[in-house]
């Protein structure tokens, strides 16, 4: 038997017991003929004591142990002289009697502490050591706990988890698929699912009524900071429901998770239309942890002064930054540089300081009268001591998106984006389509199976850009955590959607014929939603990146540097698959 | 609102209520001015009544509904005149007042009944209709219930579910990998995991202590009846445990599942060595639902008579088939044909009938004296009226495997393999290696990470074929449901294993360097096990095939005939991946 107890469970009430523990050497120190050793496992840390006076040989062995040696120790639980109130086992120690090295360790390439000295690359290469750090491990424990809570919640709501296949067909609409050559069907390929979207809709046609799956999804896209080629969705679908049914049920699930994981009670969530969110926050995922809502200033500033930039603008909007009228020239220059970065893309930044003494000082003093600036103060509701930051441009929504970046930057600077505060809401009434500059055509904002708002169906032919979708996103702290929609369940309407999206009937049939055919056999009205599990975990864990809640993430080149994957494969494998390399370089 | 109730929940106590139901038309019949319609959803069937006298127009609409129309009905719950005790809603019916067609249906290509008229191919092409059949849907409901039970059981035992990546590196040892070309790393490929074996071992090195995952696994093998290219494992690993710890814990899990799902109380399970299982049943997965254990007859029949086949044999073994001494010539010929089939591969079959009158009649009467046949009766324990079937051959284990096929065939013929009876056991002490005729070398019986029995380690160099593994399989009703082993956690021993398996150190390093490197940092003793979820579900559901407990299975060519996957992909996709087709035909 390797252990009678874990390193996290012995207490003062166990004093006197003979125990066996196994674990890793966290650290050791010598003090007055004694060696103290912290033994660590997943459950905690227990102090071991080796007394030179009692057993010099044993103590000598203990002194030879290096960090991260895996050892087994037998001894007696004893009350500590100097207790450590920071850990649950801090009242006791083990007076060691026997010691066995189960497995020695080389010196780890970085320290196994919450604040490690290992850089990202080293940590990923030795991920099995990185995962020994409590700071990382607890994220994966939280992830496990969340999935248990989610499954039991949905099970109680009569949802059935159904595994859908990972080897499916390729659908060029949407992101790029990962593909898998089929050896048994040479020249043909499976694709890995970007989501189980069509399969879950088929389960609704099959009468499953309430489906969910915590499902791996795959997208072969160029990776940005917070993207992984494989990620996990909490994927759900329901029949015979309307938008409010879905929203209510999954809001309740979110409430359950916030309560159980963080002890936070979410209020009934606001539903904000996409248009309102864009107008007030310049984003379809507004961060509501702080104010600084947009104030439109067209009436105050366009055509009222001699500033040609404003006079030619189609949108002028500002935010009130409270208490920052004392910003220095240097700070304002930093903000100007910030908005001019290519990622933001604004031409320049206008500021108005409303000083404590009631005067105003701005970058547009020469174009506007003090009275006009006072008018802006009234419109924006700025107070003495506040700073107003203004952007303008010839495309209202583009400018709003720039102003959103500035607002979030100010939130960061003022420490208003507290990771322990959670502000969630629903965004509704998305536009059904959005224009793609790249493809020069309308694309589905969500996906081609989204139900148009019935009131807007007459607009499909003439004004598709005005059609609202029966779609909803769950947003928390400025992050889109989930999203879904009512689905089309009618063959004709689905065909119409493909037509507006520029599909020929042949292409629609080739790609989605199986779904449109299924709709001909009594398809029920249905709707669904998917949460990004990685994002949901990272929010509840207070993490910046989803990477820290994934056991073995890939880097920005899609590589697993620990496994050294991807890698070249044998010619025999290529031959069997009847493919060959066609390298450009 | 689409419904106030499901089709499975209304009872006599609801009589008088106004309700709204939604579902599918299962069947309808007209009787004396009334139309009766069975409305079906996942939860049950409720009878609707349309009375021509009350509302002729509504009744006319109801008469127009075809099978599988998806409809919504409002009406009043009413006590039935002729109750149907077979269904929970059989005491009531709904007097319909309003009817709305939510979605019409074409005539389904097969009937949506437990016993459908659809063949396999048609059912798979229209799987979304096939899944409407209760007989199929209940298997997936059972699968869901099992995974909930498993997860909560393991969670209570401190196991953490960790998602390991699906895009990993290719390892040519073992079955054939599915591979995924990497666009960002041209010429390189990911592989889909055959199991998370090495990753779960790394999680043990990482100190996770108890890991599990219900994980999709992939093998690109030619498909046999009960194989799927993608399948699901309940994958588990534990640190600081010995074989008995693992066996006890997972036996308890199995006991929990049999109890909760089938109401069956499993006894403490027998542990049978591989050698004993081969000797008594000719199989490492013996079906213990019936007897007919092997009796070795070398002493009785080799060299004692003039039958050259037996005199030259290295193994002669028989089974006693109770009460079958009256088998006809035709029946015995069928059995001879059965054992001579290429799948079984025996040369011939010898029988001895021990007649009710005490005489014996055999196919070897001319080679042996009646006394010698009487001796066989004593050795086998056959009684008057029993039939003894005997096989012989020059390779003991090969002959035993043939005799195993015959034993199972007799079990089938005599109805002894009852799907509602469960006989489970553990098989232990597997040989660590097995000889591969194809590869002309020793292969790992399980995988190269399996711990040799410490007593046998001295045999590794000279007699590797005699080395026993610390491995164990969970067998139920002749099916291997799970298996696992203690793992090597020592770099040197792991290197030795690769050496015996004929790996060069370079190849071992290239393929498994990451694991052997990890073992250098205080790897804990660890062990694990994986159950085949598909098989486990199919046993508990009483199914012949795993296909019926998979939502969207593939056929024997690895095709999903509903999705028409795999399929050809665009030239653009191939170009981006920098591969091209290299078709042989």
Automatic annotation (TrEMBL), chains A, B:
<dbReference type="InterPro" id="IPR004524">
    <property type="entry name" value="Asp-tRNA-ligase_1"/>
</dbReference>
<feature type="binding site">
    <location>
        <position position="219"/>
    </location>
    <ligand>
        <name>L-aspartate</name>
    </ligand>
</feature>
<dbReference type="GO" id="GO:0005524">
    <property type="term" value="F:ATP binding"/>
</dbReference>
<dbReference type="Pfam" id="PF00152">
    <property type="entry name" value="tRNA-synt_2"/>
</dbReference>
<dbReference type="InterPro" id="IPR047089">
    <property type="entry name" value="Asp-tRNA-ligase_1_N"/>
</dbReference>
<dbReference type="GO" id="GO:0003676">
    <property type="term" value="F:nucleic acid binding"/>
</dbReference>
<dbReference type="Pfam" id="PF02938">
    <property type="entry name" value="GAD"/>
</dbReference>
<feature type="domain" description="Aminoacyl-transfer RNA synthetases class-II family profile">
    <location>
        <begin position="140"/>
        <end position="566"/>
    </location>
</feature>
<comment type="subunit">
    <text>Homodimer.</text>
</comment>
<keyword id="KW-0648">Protein biosynthesis</keyword>
<dbReference type="InterPro" id="IPR002312">
    <property type="entry name" value="Asp/Asn-tRNA-synth_IIb"/>
</dbReference>
<feature type="binding site">
    <location>
        <position position="228"/>
    </location>
    <ligand>
        <name>ATP</name>
    </ligand>
</feature>
<feature type="binding site">
    <location>
        <begin position="532"/>
        <end position="535"/>
    </location>
    <ligand>
        <name>ATP</name>
    </ligand>
</feature>
<keyword id="KW-0436">Ligase</keyword>
<dbReference type="GO" id="GO:0005737">
    <property type="term" value="C:cytoplasm"/>
</dbReference>
<dbReference type="InterPro" id="IPR047090">
    <property type="entry name" value="AspRS_core"/>
</dbReference>
<feature type="binding site">
    <location>
        <position position="446"/>
    </location>
    <ligand>
        <name>L-aspartate</name>
    </ligand>
</feature>
<dbReference type="GO" id="GO:0006422">
    <property type="term" value="P:aspartyl-tRNA aminoacylation"/>
</dbReference>
<comment type="similarity">
    <text>Belongs to the class-II aminoacyl-tRNA synthetase family. Type 1 subfamily.</text>
</comment>
<feature type="binding site">
    <location>
        <position position="173"/>
    </location>
    <ligand>
        <name>L-aspartate</name>
    </ligand>
</feature>
<feature type="region of interest" description="Aspartate">
    <location>
        <begin position="197"/>
        <end position="200"/>
    </location>
</feature>
<dbReference type="InterPro" id="IPR012340">
    <property type="entry name" value="NA-bd_OB-fold"/>
</dbReference>
<feature type="binding site">
    <location>
        <position position="480"/>
    </location>
    <ligand>
        <name>ATP</name>
    </ligand>
</feature>
<feature type="binding site">
    <location>
        <position position="487"/>
    </location>
    <ligand>
        <name>L-aspartate</name>
    </ligand>
</feature>
<keyword id="KW-0547">Nucleotide-binding</keyword>
<dbReference type="InterPro" id="IPR004115">
    <property type="entry name" value="GAD-like_sf"/>
</dbReference>
<keyword id="KW-0030">Aminoacyl-tRNA synthetase</keyword>
<dbReference type="InterPro" id="IPR006195">
    <property type="entry name" value="aa-tRNA-synth_II"/>
</dbReference>
<dbReference type="InterPro" id="IPR029351">
    <property type="entry name" value="GAD_dom"/>
</dbReference>
<comment type="function">
    <text>Catalyzes the attachment of L-aspartate to tRNA(Asp) in a two-step reaction: L-aspartate is first activated by ATP to form Asp-AMP and then transferred to the acceptor end of tRNA(Asp).</text>
</comment>
<dbReference type="Pfam" id="PF01336">
    <property type="entry name" value="tRNA_anti-codon"/>
</dbReference>
<protein>
    <recommendedName>
        <fullName>Aspartate--tRNA ligase</fullName>
        <ecNumber>6.1.1.12</ecNumber>
    </recommendedName>
</protein>
<dbReference type="GO" id="GO:0004815">
    <property type="term" value="F:aspartate-tRNA ligase activity"/>
</dbReference>
<dbReference type="InterPro" id="IPR004365">
    <property type="entry name" value="NA-bd_OB_tRNA"/>
</dbReference>
<dbReference type="InterPro" id="IPR045864">
    <property type="entry name" value="aa-tRNA-synth_II/BPL/LPL"/>
</dbReference>
<keyword id="KW-0067">ATP-binding</keyword>
<dbReference type="InterPro" id="IPR004364">
    <property type="entry name" value="Aa-tRNA-synt_II"/>
</dbReference>
<keyword id="KW-0963">Cytoplasm</keyword>
<feature type="binding site">
    <location>
        <begin position="219"/>
        <end position="221"/>
    </location>
    <ligand>
        <name>ATP</name>
    </ligand>
</feature>
């Amino acid at each position: 038997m390797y252990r009678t107890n874990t390193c996290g469970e012995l207490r003062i009430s166990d004093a006197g017991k003979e125990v066996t523990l196994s674990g890793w050497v966290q650290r050791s120190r010598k003090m007055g003929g004694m060696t103290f050793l912290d033994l660590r496992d997943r459950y905690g840390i227990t102090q071991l004591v080796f007394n030179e006076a009692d057993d010099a040989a044993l103590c000598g062995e203990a002194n030879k142990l290096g960090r991260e040696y895996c050892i087994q120790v037998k001894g007696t639980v004893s009350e500590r002289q100097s207790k450590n109130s920071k850990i649950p086992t801090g009242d006791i120690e083990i007076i060691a009697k026997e010691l066995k090295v189960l497995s020695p360790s080389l010196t780890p390439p970085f320290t196994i502490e919450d604040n490690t000295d290992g850089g990202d690359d080293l940590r990923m290469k030795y991920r099995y050591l990185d995962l020994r750090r409590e700071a990382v491990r607890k994220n994966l424990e939280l992830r496990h706990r969340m999935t248990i809570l989610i499954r039991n919640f949905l099970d109680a709501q009569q949802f059935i988890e159904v595994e859908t296949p990972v080897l499916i067909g390729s659908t060029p609409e949407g992101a790029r698929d990962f593909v898998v050559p089929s050896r048994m069907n040479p020249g043909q390929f499976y694709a890995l699912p970007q989501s189980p979207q069509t399969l879950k809709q088929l389960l609704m046609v099959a009468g499953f009524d309430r489906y969910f799956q915590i499902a791996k999804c795959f997208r072969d896209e160029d990776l940005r900071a917070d993207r992984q080629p494989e990620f996990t969705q909490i994927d759900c679908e329901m029949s015979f429901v309307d938008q409010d049914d879905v929203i209510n049920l999954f809001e309740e699930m979110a409430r359950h998770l916030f309560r159980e994981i963080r002890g936070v009670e979410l209020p009934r969530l606001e539903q904000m239309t996409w248009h309102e969110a864009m107008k007030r926050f310049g984003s379809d995922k507004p961060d509501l942890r702080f104010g600084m809502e947009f104030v439109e200033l067209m009436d105050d500033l366009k055509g009222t002064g001699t500033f040609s930039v404003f006079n030619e603008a189609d949108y002028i909007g500002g935010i009130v930054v409270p208490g920052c009228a004392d910003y220095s020239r240097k700070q304002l220059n930093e903000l100007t540089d910030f908005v001019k970065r290519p990622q933001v893309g604004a031409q320049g930044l206008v500021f108005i300081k409303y000083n404590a003494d009631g005067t105003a000082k701005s970058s547009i003093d020469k174009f506007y009268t003090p009275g006009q600036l006072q008018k802006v103060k009234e419109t924006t509701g700025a107070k003495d001591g506040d700073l107003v930051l203004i952007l303008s441009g010839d495309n209202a929504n583009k400018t709003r998106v720039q102003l959103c970046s500035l607002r979030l930057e100010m939130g960061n600077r003022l420490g208003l984006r507290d990771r322990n505060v959670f502000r969630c809401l629903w965004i509704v009434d998305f536009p059904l389509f959005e224009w793609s500059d790249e493809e020069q055509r309308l694309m589905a904002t969500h996906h081609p199976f989204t139900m148009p708002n019935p009131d807007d169906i007459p607009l499909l032919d003439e004004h598709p850009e005005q059609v609202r979708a029966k779609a909803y996103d769950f947003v928390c702290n400025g992050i889109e955590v989930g999203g879904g929609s009512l689905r089309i369940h009618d063959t004709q309407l689905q065909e119409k959607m493909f037509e507006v999206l520029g599909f020929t009937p042949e292409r629609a049939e080739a790609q989605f014929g199986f779904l449109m055919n299924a709709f001909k056999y009594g398809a029920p009205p249905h709707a669904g939603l998917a949460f990004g599990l990685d994002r949901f975990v990272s929010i509840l864990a207070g993490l910046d990146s989803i990477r820290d809640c994934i056991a073995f993430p890939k880097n920005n080149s899609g590589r697993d540097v620990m496994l050294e994957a991807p890698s070249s494969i044998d010619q025999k494998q290529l031959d069997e698959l009847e493919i060959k390399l066609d390298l450009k370089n």
